[in-house]
Amino acid sequence: MDTFSAAVMLFLIMDPLGNLPVFLSILRHIDPKRRRKVMMRELLFSLAIMMGFLFAGQQILSFLNLRQEAVSIAGGIILFLIAIKMIFPTPGGVTGLAAGEEPFLVPMAIPMIAGPSILASLLLLANQAPGRMTDWSLALLMAWGASAVILMFYEVFNKLLGERGLTAVERLMGMLLVMISVQMLLDGVHHYLQVVG
């Protein structure tokens, strides 16, 4: 796989367009002047986490005696809980935070941007071709950069959708997120059973 193909694959897994409704619903509760700073902070956190996983993911999992399947199962559970809150909103919104309280690391950086699928893909790239870490780093930066541009212009989508449109998209994405999270959970269990069996 060349660098560009890897970048496209990572970009599709990050799914910035799919994450937009979740990000919009989280940012609605934050002071408008702080939104862009919060978004950039969470994007930088996610990049640091993904780079860390690319270079040291296998060692981290080995040190903690964790399987890659555990990352997938845990991510699936977290996404499922977020999806339920999207479908059945609570006063604190998707994050359960009080209005105006900023999210920190979860759920924007993890698992929305640096989710279990992207972390598992980075582990796979690093394991398959450990001599091409520069290529994989460049691919990750390209995918992250494209995602960051889309997510930083969330206000354009907010104006296009409006309040009711945003609520409708949020519920719809919640339903899709439930399916994705269940699939993630099933994949993790299936791979675990294959390894154990």
Task: Give a summary of the structure in a few sentences.
It is found in: Cell membrane. The chain has one domain. The chain is built from eight helices and no strands.
Helices and strands in order:
Blueprint: H1 3-14, H2 16-27, H3 32-63, H4 68-87, H5 108-113, H6 116-128, H7 133-152, H8 154-196
Family: Belongs to the UPF0056 (MarC) family.
Main location: membrane
Pfam family, one: MarC
How many distinct folded domains? 1
Report how far the terminal alpha carbons are from each other: 31 Å
Name the poorly predicted regions: none
CA radius of gyration is 17 Å
In terms of DSSP E residues, the strand content is under 5%
Separate helix tally: 8
Overall mean pLDDT stands at 82
Q: Major beta sheet, specifics? A: none
Q: Give the overall shape.
A: globular
Residues in helices, as a percent range: over 70%
Give the ordered list of helices and strands: HHHHHHHH
| Coarse structural class | mainly alpha
